[in-house]
Amino acid sequence: MCKDGIMLSRRAERNLPPITVAMTGASGSVYGLRLVECLLEAGRRVDLTFTLAAESVLEQECGLEWREEDPELRRTIEEYFSDDDNLRHYSRMDWMAPMASGSSVKRPMVVCPCSMGTLAAIAHGLADNLIERAADVAIKEQRPLIVVPRETPLSQIHLENMLKLAQMGVTILPAMPGFYNKPAQVEEMVDFVVARILDRLGVEHQLVDRWGE
């Protein structure tokens, strides 16, 4: 087990499909970063993509200047996560990326954090970038799709879009940390949400104590 509580089994995980992690312009980019970190620590391959708005949020909230026009972006991301083997970044307009087609290997997808704009686009079958197209593929191919909305308050439009996706089999997993484990710092609140995502993905972890244990 690594220091962050992720069960390491890299050899056994190598044959599993990559997990697509998409970050959008909603507040809460730390959830997406932590999710990628935990997946990599668990030996899972990760395909990362993010929207233009996510670039601004990453800079404002985390001080990361990740710009797709930067020719060194891939190296920058690999250095941030200390992984140049299991991590791949795809441009938001890369229509040749594997997750953009139903003929690619079956892979789970997580949109974390998920803005209300991206959620609406997914709910209504719009596909103007790789994230929306990949989510569309996940739905039509009946692949695991998890969206992690981070917004408050929620309007009727937001709720209707979430219900629409839930009825299609999409997992709606809001970034709502619990407090029964008495978190003492922000990182523990982040891990609470990330742990729930990992549970849905079937990735073993020990980020939080199990209820009743």
UniProtKB/TrEMBL annotation:
Enumerate the transmembrane spans: none
Q: Tell me which UniProt keywords the record has, alphabetically.
A: Flavoprotein, FMN, Lyase, Prenyltransferase, Transferase
Q: Which reaction does it catalyse?
A: dimethylallyl phosphate + FMNH2 = prenylated FMNH2 + phosphate
GO terms for MF: carboxy-lyase activity; flavin prenyltransferase activity
According to its UniProt record, the EC number is 2.5.1.129
Q: Which residues bind FMN?
A: 25-27, 51, 115-118, 150
**SUPFAM superfamilies the record matches:** Homo-oligomeric flavin-containing Cys decarboxylases, HFCD (SSF52507)
Q: Which EC class heads this enzyme's classification? A: transferase
Residues bound to dimethylallyl phosphate: 180, 196
Biological role: Flavin prenyltransferase that catalyzes the synthesis of the prenylated FMN cofactor (prenyl-FMN) for 4-hydroxy-3-polyprenylbenzoic acid decarboxylase UbiD. The prenyltransferase is metal-independent and links a dimethylallyl moiety from dimethylallyl monophosphate (DMAP) to the flavin N5 and C6 atoms of FMN.
Q: What family does the database annotate?
A: Belongs to the UbiX/PAD1 family.
Entry protein name: Flavin prenyltransferase UbiX
Query: What lineage does UniProt assign to this protein's organism?
Result: Bacteria, Pseudomonadati, Pseudomonadota, Magnetococcia, Magnetococcales
